[in-house]
Amino acid sequence: MQRLVIPVEENIALVWQQAAPEQRAKIISMFCWLVEKGEWEKFTPTTFSRLLDEMSDKAHGNGLTPEILDEILHES
Q1: pLDDT of residue 57
Q2: Nearest 10 degrees: CA dihedral of 37, 40, 46, 52?
Q3: Is 5 in a helix, a strand, or coil?
Q4: Which residues does 18 contact at the CB level (< 8 Å), separation at least 6?
Q5: Per the domain annotation, does 36 fall within a domain?
Q6: Is residue 48 in a domain?
């Protein structure tokens, strides 16, 4: 995997730095999907919804059920 540097406003960088690793991983996954599929050119709520559907299908295909996800999200 390669590192990519993207210039952003200072407030965006601050939010990113304060984000939990899990949140960062989600954002990175979404960004990679947008770039890989070429969806950035036509990004809409529909493409975002499709991204979520694809991620859900992939998680389900890897054995992550809604119950397991709920359990993971509520671990302390």
Answers
A1: 84
A2: 60
A3: coil
A4: none
A5: no
A6: yes
What is the sign of the dihedral through the CA atoms of 29, 31, 36 and 42? positive
Closest C-alpha among 54, 57, 20 to residue 36:
54
Q: Does any domain span residue 9? A: no
Count of domains forming the chain: 1
pTM of the predicted model over 0.85:
no
What phi and psi values does residue 65 have, to the nearest 5 degrees?
Answer: -90, 165
User: Is 73 inside any structural domain?
Assistant: yes
pLDDT in tens, 45-72: 787 788 778 878 888 888 888 788 777 7
pLDDT-above-90 percentage for the chain: 14
Which residue range forms the structural domain that includes residue 57?
A: 43-76
Rounded-to-integer distance, Cα 16 and Cα 24, Å: 7
CA angle, residues 64, 56, 71, in degrees to nearest 5: 40
